Amino acid sequence: MSVLDKLYSSRTSQQYPTVSTGNSDAERRAILKRRICEEKILRTFRDVLHVQARKRHGPNYVIDMRELSVEEKSEAVIETARFFFENPELEALRIKEFANDGAYYDLNTNEKLPSNEEDLFAIIQKMDRRVVWDSNLSLPDPIDTRHAFIVGQTADHEGDFWLRSQVKRGNENLFSFGVVNYLHCFPALEIRRLRKDLVTAINKRKGGIPKPDEHYSPLSRLEEVQVIVESFLWGVDRLKKEIADLRPYSNGSYHISILLARRCAALLLHEDAPGLKPKVDEEWRKLFDNHPNVLGDTMLIQNALYFDAQILTKDTGAQRMATYCGLKFVNC
Questions:
Q1: 16, 111, 166, 185: least surrounded by Cβ within 10 Å?
Q2: What does the pLDDT look like over 96-114, one tens digit per residue?
Q3: CA 204, 124, 178 angle in degrees (round to 5)?
Q4: How far apart are CA 101 and CA 197, in angstroms?
């Protein structure tokens, strides 16, 4: 672990906090993997591990990570760290990766994961007003410094989102939210302040701009659609009861907010009010076609439930869904 401590000190100028190194092989493996991911050396570590294993066992050796000992992995970590320290330009690039870090949270517990960013979820919760923004609309200008505006997965479907002037100039009170692959290891929630330098970096990379299928591929979207249709068949009374039962637990819970948003989407399909009929008919068509935007309103509601926020939208369906679970909505 000492070389990982040195990598940590190299990027933070601080000592790594004293923690247990584990009492069993399984614990030591888990801690080692987490530290490797934290220092963003996983890809290089894997390359080094492959080279070392093939030197020992021959060029055709196929690595099974589960069979490698902690000692073999530790040796590869030492060699990986040496590689970065002997190549200052690569170490500088590794450190630079942390500059635009977001705040990351465990999908199941909402526990904050290691990163250089402060606890943005807690900061947003303390703001006077939290608004999840339907990115089809314009933001207030200027943005009140007491308010947080959050753009979630719905921005994935807006091709020009990252090029809009309100986004490009950045703002300390403008945040993005979504699911990402944390340090190339496992899915996690990510919240980022959309400062000007971050948005510039995202636009420059191009590949950093989220794609719709990063959250829902056609297959996973179809699975979600099937869940909503099955929930529709439960009937109005059961849906209303489950919405009421789940609502107190949705703030800060990604999974419960998903369950709740699905039930709101299913309840909307039961609406027969003349003013909502065109919207309901449109939603049914999207469901049957597995349209790329079929989950847009559901994700908007889910994001708002997670943050216990208002929604900024002119969509009548999203506004109606908000009323089911006690969310407020604004349209300007």
A1: 111
A2: 766 667 899 999 999 998 8
A3: 45
A4: 12
